[in-house]
Predict the structure.
Amino acid sequence: MNKLTTNIKITLVCFLAALGGIGNASGQANPGYMGRKSLVQLDITGLMGNAVFAGPLMNLNFGVSYEFARSKDFAWNIGYKKITQQMNPDMVDYEEYRFYESDNNGNSEYNGVNSGYLTYSINELKITPKFYSDGKGAIAPYGSYSGLEIAYDQLSISDVSKIGWRKPLAESASLNSIGNVTIIAVSYVQGGRRMMTDQIGLDYSFGMGYTIYQSTPNSLIELVDGGGYTSDVNDYLQTVAMKHASSARLFQASIGVSYLF
Amino acid sequence: MKRIKSNLILLSFLFSLVNLKAQNSKVKDYDNYEPQYCEGVIPSILNQSSSSKAKEATKTIKSTNAKRSDKKTEIDHAIESSFFEDQLLTSGQILYGDPMSEFVNQVADELLNDKKQLRDELQFFVMKSHVPNAYTTHNGIVVVTIGLLARLENESQLAVILAHEIQHFVLKHSLQQYKEVKQTIADSRSRRGNSDVESKIKHLYRFSKDQELEADKMGYELIKNSKYDLSEGIYVFEMLKYTDYPFLETTMSIESFETPYYKYPTHIKEGIAKKLSEAVVADEKSDKEELDEETSTHPSLDKRINILKNLVDQKNFTGNQKFVVGQKQFEEIQKMARYELLLLFVRRGDYGRSFYLSSVVEILYGKGNFIDKVKAMSLYGILEHKIKKHDLADYGCGINQNRGDWRPITAAIETLDAKDFGAFASKLIYDIYAQRNQESFLTKITNRSFQLIQSKLDINLKDFLNFKPQDIEAAKKNIDTSAVMDGKLKNPRSRITRTSGNEIAINTAYYMGVFYTIADKKALESYFNSVEQSYSSIGTTKKETYSSKLERDKKRYLYSNKNISSITLLEPKFSYSLGRITGNGDDIRSNRNYYLEEITKKNILEQWKYVSKYTNNDIQMLNNSVSKSLKTEDLNNYSRMNDWLSERLNNDTGQMILFYSQYLNLDANDKYVGWVGYEYTEVPRPFDPLALFYTLYFPVYFPFYLAQQLQNDCYFNQKVLVYNTETGRQIYNHKNMVEHKIKEDFLRAQIYNTIYEIKHVEGK
């Protein structure tokens, strides 16, 4: 619990720093890029962290966001992102988190049975204060920036019917529907926007994210540190999905197109 | 054949008649003299791009059978000189088609009468510079300065100088010198050469001197075979000895402005005398240094004079004419050069010199509106700088730089304190104003001067009217007739010693007596009344305080710019250099890449045009880079604005009336002018061993590491200055340093931002 509060404190400090930035920057006027200060952006985000912990190299997700520059070096970006991740049996951590296809009776077998998939999806709302770097010639919303992305996620596990749980192996593990989990995550993002025409820009960014809060009974941190099992299947699967979601966020990259107006 | 020849002569005669007629139809109005700019069709060398010239030269050198290393140096030299020449010709300082450069061309024609091929390879121009000098480039461009033309006494002297410069071209001295310098630099960089740098440099000086003597010798041969008088060369060298002196001298000191009722106190005169005697000691010291043969690039003038005297004594030359093209034409261009010289000194802010020279020109050519304006402007300029406590040595009053008869008056101007000088200057300015009170420029500066002395020096103008000398009779007895301006001119070559003036008793606030003898007291009183009412516009000496730098900048530059709808900009200056890191750390050595420079400059120019259309701001770009479409008119517009800006930059004051404002002829909307400069350097990123070490632990990072390491570090500087030509006030001054590659969108963003900032940023 201590760690959780520390994380929240870090987030608060980051937010305050962002607000401080706004206070300083608002005094200056901003021309934008050729007079345009707002934009709509469509992007594809690749969450690459799970590649480090095995799994697919990159998982692509689509997002849409709206950005408006408040001053020459500061802009807010508000967006929505839909993340759909599938955990497959090739994951390294299979000693503990391997899933098996259940047979028609809902039974799953460790040996000789095809692996199953766990699919989870996240609806993410995010807000990012972006600091455009004057020293690199950036004028918000054009040029290179660094930002602090704060995401509010609702995670849900979909299509759980075919999933079995190995412990105990012989038991049926047909699951009931699992409720949503809330996640709050913070990412440090660095990126840039180059203009292809006066209105259409090409975006790119790299980021590192960290989950600072999740609403399951077993906190992520405790699970990772303790490494123990819980008795409740729902809880367990949620935790597994969240560990995956959290590690996936560790390294992220995105490319996108934006329309300035 | 004979018939053809005679026809040709007739034709050329007719042509010259037409030329003469054309010149006569445009008689220069010296009373309202205006700066001379280029005339006629633009020379064809300015319609061919610098890069194509450089490529052509490179191709020719490659096809020769020289050594490979020699070829490389020659190619480097050809590229540099092609680009450098074009920069010189489009600098706004070069004149062609005007009477002065036409005359220089005629003398060159005469000199190279029987060397037609050589004549075709050479082009002659006049340069707007006060320094008496002449230059030759590798590609046959000979430039003679206005400072030199103003000093020459006859056509033969000009011919001697041209003959010397032509030989530099014939003997390819520029290339030889370039090779020698390159070799010296290479030797000094190598380890074994390091200890011997000094002797290498001395060798370089010797090399340069040998070239000068060689050019002299060959030049004399050219003169010997012409109609010109070789012995005039001796006077050229003698003239060059006196370049610290004015071209003609007249006695002028503080006593020249005294009246029976207005005498300067002893302590001021003692101060001036002390400064003058100190300057004489400094002169002797600097003369000794100059005489050091080993550290000068030119052989000593005495040595050159002796060589020439020996040659003249042999009397094996035929020509003895001082004038061949014509004495009348020479005198005309000499007069023009002297008027131009006045303007050049004003543009440089050398007001001490321009004040003195205006009196010389007045004695020489008679009174005139223009000369009066220069005189008033000079006094007003010094007043502005004196009030702001600037070092007057930067404004033509430097005693050590001014030798000869302008020294006493410039020393006096420097010695007088602000109130003394305020009274002195305003009296002289008022005298001129009273004579020509319809002149709008004179009215402007007279008003401004009186407002200045009133608000900044706390002088009550009415005290001028009420002042009465305490001892009028005693003052009358002390009239010193020898010290007043005698109105005689003499050549600095025939210098005589001066006598100092008499001493006068001190009178407190004596400077109030300056207007005592003025005849029309009523007119003066009514003028003072009008000035007093309007003096609040000049502001007071109260210092404004700001809470932050941002607030200060907003108040200073940005608050008043909202209404700007149009800006006239000089074509951006641009330098593109590729660097490399040498030595142990941050020592960067970079070379300009002229080809990239030309392309990128063009790109920048296009982006400026694009953005200005986009923003509905009328940005007029005054072009001056060589291209097919460049015209004389473009160059003249550029020069005109460049002249104004030079004057403004030479007078580093917040607000000042400038002399060249008269010649701008801008609409009310076009009163904003700007200057943009760019500098771009690319340096390979230094090797980062730590980052490589990380990749060993974290291989995923390796591609990013490679991408980072293989990049160049790019440094981009943009400097923008914008002025209001009406008030002379600087309204925008911004330096922008960023690390970025030059891309289209980046340029657009930067330029849009600049225009936006100039126009829109509002103060609170």
Summary: The mean pLDDT of chain A is 71. The interface with chain B takes residues 27-29, 31, 33-35, 52, 72, 134-137, 139, 142-143, 194-195, 198, 251 of chain A (CB under 8 Å).
